């Protein structure tokens, strides 16, 4: 059974710091991996999708990497801003979408 | 912009009541989904639908049913609400042109409390 884990559960950093969020999954048989952002009172917004054949994807200050063989992905956020404060979820696609429990990020001004 | 709306942001119901959660999407998406989100458990799939009147069970369908009479609307029904169904419920939709699970657009969620 595929399990997706995100560590840490919560993270607080000062503004301007570069940071890394981690996601691990137990079964490497995935089609792709996505990173989502969730703001309070709002739904999830997809940030990046990495196909299983890819190693990384970039969007602005965000860079996501995927190491399928080791079952790991990281989301790198450069020069963090208070507006980056949110919960970040990773999810893998097998025959459905399986989510991790998320990392709550707080960027302090 | 794709818009997925859910009928209520907050809902309080009593144990045993029949509860309807409504979800509407305005982008003519074929696929629609219902998830619940609980602390420490993440999002879990309750039901999904790939066409009008078609439905498939997800991981935790017990205690729930769904209805999809029109393409844009997907309803989640709690036949007899129980306290363990207190949760955040999220609806999503995706187009048939992409992988069903890839391009999901989420609604804002309904926080349901069953007392």
Q: Please give the largest β-sheet of chain B.
A: 7 strands, mixed
Cα-atom radius of gyration of chain A: 13 Å
Low confidence ranges of chain A: none
Strand content of chain A: over 45%
Please give the count of helices of chain B.
0
Structure characteristics:
heterodimer; A: 109 residues; mainly beta; six-stranded mixed β-sheet; five-stranded antiparallel β-sheet; B: 115 residues; seven-stranded mixed β-sheet
Q: If you had to describe this structure to a student in words, what would you say it looks like?
A:
The complex is a heterodimer of chains A (109) and B (115). Chain A is built from no helices and 11 strands. Chain A has 109 residues and is mostly beta strands. In chain A, strands 2, 4, 5, 9, 10 and 11 form a 6-stranded mixed beta sheet that branches. In chain A, strands 1-3-8-7-6 form a 5-stranded antiparallel beta sheet, with no helix packed on it. In chain A, a hairpin with a 2-residue loop joins β6 and β7. The mean pLDDT of chain A is 95. The mean pLDDT of chain B is 93. At the A-B interface, β5 and β9 of A face β5 and β10 of B.
Short description:
The complex is a heterodimer of chains A (109) and B (115). Chain A is mainly β and 109 residues long.
Fold topology:
The complex is a heterodimer of chains A (109) and B (115).
Chain A: E1 4-7, E2 10-14, E3 19-25, E4 32-38, E5 44-51, E6 56-59, E7 62-67, E8 72-77, E9 86-93, E10 97-99, E11 103-108
Parallel strand pairs in A: 2-11
Antiparallel strand pairs in A: 1-3, 3-8, 4-5, 4-9, 6-7, 7-8, 9-10, 9-11
Chain B: E1 4-6, E2 10-13, E3 19-25, E4 31-38, E5 42-51, E6 54-57, E7 64-70, E8 73-78, E9 87-94, E10 105-106, E11 110-114
């Amino acid at each position: 059974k595929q399990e997706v884990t995100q560590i840490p559960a919560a993270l607080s950093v000062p503004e301007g710091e570069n940071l890394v969020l981690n996601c691990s999954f137990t079964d490497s048989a995935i089609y792709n991996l996505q990173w989502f952002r969730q703001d309070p009172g709002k739904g999830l917004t997809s940030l990046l999708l990495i196909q299983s054949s890819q190693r990384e994807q970039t969007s602005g200050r965000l860079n996501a990497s995927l190491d399928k063989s080791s079952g790991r992905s990281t989301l790198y956020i450069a020069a963090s801003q208070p507006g980056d404060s949110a919960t970040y979820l990773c999810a893998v696609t097998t025959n459905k979408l399986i989510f991790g429990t998320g990392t709550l990020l707080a960027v302090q001004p | 912009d794709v818009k997925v709306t859910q009928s209520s942001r907050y809902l309080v119901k009593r144990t045993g009541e029949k509860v309807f959660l409504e979800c509407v999407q305005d982008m003519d998406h074929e696929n629609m989904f219902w998830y619940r989100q609980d602390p420490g458990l993440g999002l879990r799939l309750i039901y999904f639908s790939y066409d009008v009147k078609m439905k498939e069970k997800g991981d935790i369908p017990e205690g729930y049913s769904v209805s999809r009479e029109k393409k844009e609307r997907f309803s989640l029904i709690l036949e007899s609400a129980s306290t363990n169904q207190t949760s955040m419920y999220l609806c999503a939709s995706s187009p048939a042109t992409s992988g069903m699970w890839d391009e999901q657009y989420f609604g804002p969620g309904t926080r349901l409390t069953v007392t």
